Amino acid sequence: MRPISLRLHERPITQVLFNREGDLLFVAAKDKLVSVWYTANGERIGSYLCGGVVYSIDVSQDSKYLITASADAKARVWDVQTGKVLDVVDFEVAARSIEFSQGDKQILCVSDQVMGCQGTIHVFNFEKDDVRKFSKAYILPSPNVKILQATWGPLNKTILASCEDGAVRIYDTEKKELIKTILDHNKTVTRIEWTKHRIMFMTCSKDGTAKLYDTKTLKLLKTFDTGRPINAAGISPLKPHVILGGGQSAESVTTSKVDASQFKVRFFHVVYGDELGGLIGHIGPVHSICFTPDGKTFATGGEEGLVQINHFDESYFEFDDDLIYTPPTQH
Amino acid sequence: MTIFDSDEEELVTRIEDFEPPVQIDSSFARYIVVDNIPVAPEAKHDRLKAILLKIYQSRGGKIAPNGITLVLDAQKNTKGFAFIEYTEKDSEKDSEKDSAVDSAAIAAADAVISLNNYPLDKAHTLKVNLLEDFKKFSNFNEGYKPPAKEEFKPKPNYNQWLSDPRALKGYDQFVTRYGDYTDICWNEMHLGKPGVEKSSVGLTSSYVQWSNTGSYLVTFHPDGIALYGGKDWVQVNLFQHRGVQLVDFSPEDKYLVTFAPVATDNPKDPKSITVWDVRSGKKLRSFLAPPKESFTWPAFQWSAKDKYIARLSEEKTINIYETPSMNLLDNQAFSVPNLKIKDFSWSPTDLSLVYFIPAADTLPAKITLIEMPTKKILAEKNIWDAIDARFHWQNEGAFLCVKTDKNVTTKKKEKTPTTQFELFRTQEPNVPIESFEVNYQIKAFSWEPRGKKICIIHGEFKLNMFVSFFEIQKQSIKLMAKLENRKLNTIFWSPRGTFLLLANLGDTGELEFYNTQDYESFGTQEHLQCTGVDWNPSGRYVTTYVSHWKVQTDTGFNIWSFSGDLVYSVLKDRFYQFNWRPRPKFMLSTKQMNSIKTNYKKYQEKFDKSDDDDNKRIQHIEQQRLENLMKEFLSYLQKGEAEYQAHEADRKKLGCYEDIDKNDVYEAVETIEELIDVQTIVLRKTN
Q1: pLDDT tens digit string along B466-509?
Q2: Which of A207, A255, A327 sits opposite B638 (nearest CB)?
Q3: Nearest CB to B638: which of A62, A226, A325?
């Protein structure tokens, strides 16, 4: 497996994201730039320049609209094809996380917990076909801690927020209130990653563990302990595999010697919990991992600004049984 | 009358307001009765009173004026007993009355405890009792009641773990601490990960420690320490010692010493260092700690067989205490007249100790090996100019190596500085002594356990050290091998000898696995920032770890085979501690061990078969476990998927696209023009 290295960004990558078809890769970075690439060969198509560090992006399911949340306290909606800004929303503080709802009719955006402002989840309506502008829908009550990411639950009925105090908070979007707090991590939850069809979700934490939950029952199914802070997870929709990435942040690494194995992305068996292998390539902590929806390719983005696209070899697909989502009907 | 009546009422209440009612002191707590005083005629009464006054004020209590009442018979002779009344001291008279009463009563009680059985002369031994005790004794129940029979509670077998099937197969236990967890694990190598036996949260407030024979696990708490052991890890004993920080067990785990830092300790009731009996949990004796500058741990050195405990006193003598009485051996400190002992060390197996007296003006330094408790000198060596010495016993007590440091006199430029060693063959008749020298400064020195080899790391620069191996032969000490240009600072011998791990601890963590059978290196490895090494008691595995106490990144441990192959590696956030559980001393003699070694083939077959069976069984169980896990996971996955499919209508309402493979099938029509073939047909013109 030969990775395709995408070298454009000069500052840490914050998010890598495939569109629904998996043929386009969007990359957000701290150098105020969002870039878009062809997945197949790593050819750059274009880029979108924001006014500040881009923390989070999302793309609509028809790949027409790109939304960005950035540190200049703005959320923007872009036309993917022309690169024009269609609308901008201002916040008092930096916008941390942004996501389209399923069906693209609403957008959630998280504002930061700084300068006396409380970390808040804002929800906007988005009329994609005619107005193509944000309009305020509602605000969820703040938990009064920093929220790193918020994401829509199945059928947009809930919103899950990963918080700095190690909790995952679940909000009901109808009643617009907190309905459940899961407190299993003892350090910041860095990311919530869904499996295909949002059947399960995985929480990554700075405490060195990642935990897999059943969405319906919220039962903790599995804990993966890596001993190093985890920033990102990628869950294969095809195989029972999960990729975990992270590493000590630059300021806490005191060794003079750079150990590349420290920042490798690691493959785990999602059921057995065994470590299957690792991939060395990054020389800084990995901040984001994303699988294509077909599970045949994944991308990683790191602190050093490098993005890698990995197309799996044929041998990988023979390695473990595919996940069986629907059991064969018995006759 | 009626008017008076009311007035009187008021008057009474008013008086009570400003003066408490007089209370008659009906207590006789201040009085003592002294029996067995000599029978004396009236003329000698004053002298007797003076003597009693002197005796009963000697503990600091003050006797009231005319407080001694001699009881007389008709002839005015004393009847043989007297009453003595104590009073408050002058200094306390002005202070609170209540406390003054206490001080007199305390003086009386103190007299009963400390002045009872005072030998006045051969015929008279004075007996003291509290006057109040009359009440107690007159009501004494004379009927004998047999004491209730205490039910016998068997203590758990602390060596139970050794008969666990896993221990019998040669696996060992270890304890790790990370975060708030303390895990006791089995090291089952075929699993490739530790098998957790017991995991607990917040077991200890600082760290944990195994006892010397592995019977107990010590946990630390603000109020003292607790020992855990037995099959179910029950709490065996509690030792109350506030602020305890350090624990040291005797070699055979009969006693333990605890230390807690106390800012100003009371010499009459010291609280710094306490010696305990492990089984009964009783305190044997407490000691003052030496001042901070000269404090070392262990504060006391244990002799072999747990017989004596000793430490160097501030007068540079050795205080040797006998167990379990904790009295000074021969009631005096061991000292050498006019000379000051700088250091000493017990033999690990024999009741003998070696001490060092540094060189003084005109006298040479002295290293002396003496037998205890006879104090017979076994060997002695004089060395000129030596100012310090370090003792290194071989762990079977057969050899003693003493490193001596000399006062460096830089008169002329020396070629290379050397360090001198004295070797005592302590178990040979007359204890022969030899000397040998090693170049440069010594960084580390270590004996092969149960062996005759010495490993020394020496050199001038941190990055360029030498490692030398010596072997003690019949007549000489022979340099067997020397490694050069090594970046190593610590030696860890396998507890079974022959193999050793050389490490660069607290730095970059280079490791070198070495075999002294053929004097060759197995190879080098690295554990970045490694802070500690611990050999498995069997000598088959060795652990290197990075502790959060010293390094904050990538904490965890690696387990290596003795030859340097990584068996597995565990990374844990906030990992603190890793310790193998020690096994009790070998029951087999060296001869028996050797016979097992020669007949190894015979046993091997049996063990290989048992291992094979176990592995098959375990693999089967593991297979089953994995299958079950997969089944459970798939059940959740398929339930979720079924629900997802059921909500198709809801998704349509939201405007969601379905999976790519269903709705994205589109037909592309492309017109392709292609030249398929060119045929040349020559039409012949027919004329």
Answers
A1: 999 999 988 888 899 998 888 888 999 998 888 999 999 887 88
A2: A327
A3: A325
Chain B residue whose CA is closest to A253: B553
Number of domains in chain B: 2
| pLDDT over 90 (residue A190) | yes
CB < 8 Å to A292, chain B: none
* Å between A278 CA and nearest CA of chain B: 14
Q: Which of the residues B199, B553, B629 would you substitute to probe the A interface, choosing the one with the greatest number of A C-beta atoms within 10 Å?
A: B553
Q: Report which of residues B14 and A150 the model is more confident about.
A: A150
Which residues is B282 bridged to in the sheet?
A: none
For residue B164, pLDDT beyond 50: yes
- Structural domain containing residue B381: 303-409+416-439
Looking at the 3D structure of chain A, how many domains does it have? Answer: 1
CB A158 within 8 A of CB A172: yes
Burial class of B11 by CB neighbour count within 10 A (0 to 12, 13 to 18, 19+): exposed
The enclosing domain of B358 has a CATH number of 2.130.10.10
Classify residue A167: in a domain, yes or no: yes
Q: Which residues of A touch B510 (CB under 8 A)?
A: none
Q: Give the SS3 label for residue A225.
A: strand
The answer on pLDDT for B92 being more than 60 is: no
Whether B637 and A199 lie within 8 Å, measured CB to CB: yes
Contacts with A227 from chain B: Cβ below 8 Å? 554-556, 570-573, 575
DSSP state of A186: S
Cβ atoms of B434 and B470 within 8 Å: the answer is no
Closest partner residue to B553 among A198, A200, A255, by Cβ? Answer: A255
| Average confidence (pLDDT) over A235-263 | 73
Backbone φ and ψ for B445, nearest 5 degrees, come out as: -140, 135
| Shortest CA gap A58–chain B (Å) | 15
Most A CBs within 10 Å, among B557, B637, B661, to test the A interface: B637
Judged by CB atoms closer than 8 Å, whether chains meet at B638 and A156 is answered as no
The pLDDT of residue B94 is above 90: no
Predicted TM-score of the model (pTM): 0.63
Mark yes or no for CB contact B636/A102 under 8 Å.
no
CB nearest to B654's CB, from A155, A198, A214: A155
Residue B109 domain-assigned (yes or no): yes
Q: Is residue B519 assigned to a domain?
A: no
**Is the peptide bond preceding residue B373 cis, with omega within 30 degrees of 0?**
yes
Which of the four pLDDT bands, split at 50, 70 and 90, describes residue B100?
A: very low
Select from B79, B111, B138 the last residue of a domain. Answer: B138
In a domain, B201, yes or no: no
B 141-200 near A (Cβ less than 8 A): 179
Domain end call among B138, B163, B178: B138
Mind listing the pLDDT tens digit for each residue in A311-331? 988 888 888 788 888 877 765
Between CA A154 and CA A200 the distance in angstroms is 10
Residues in chain B: 687
Inter-axis angle of helices B590-598 and B600-646, nearest 10: 80
Q: What is the pLDDT of residues A7-55, one digit of tens each?
A: 999 999 999 999 988 889 999 999 999 999 999 888 999 999 988 999 9
Asked if residue B579 belongs to a domain, the reply is: no
Q: Token pair for residue B674? A: 């292609």
Check which CATH number belongs to the domain holding A194 and give it. 2.130.10.10
* Cα–Cα distance list, A15 to A187, A232, A285 (Å): 21, 9, 13
Q: Nearest chain B Cα to A61, which residue?
A: B657
Q: Is B101 helix (H, G, I), strand (E, B) or coil?
A: helix
**Chain B neighbors of A240, CB-CB under 8 A:** 630, 633
**What residues make up the domain containing A226?**
2-320
A219 occurs within a structural domain = yes
CA of A207 vs chain B CAs: smallest distance (Å): 7
Cα–Cα distances in angstroms (integers) from residue B668 to residues A294, B176, B664, in the given order: 21, 64, 12
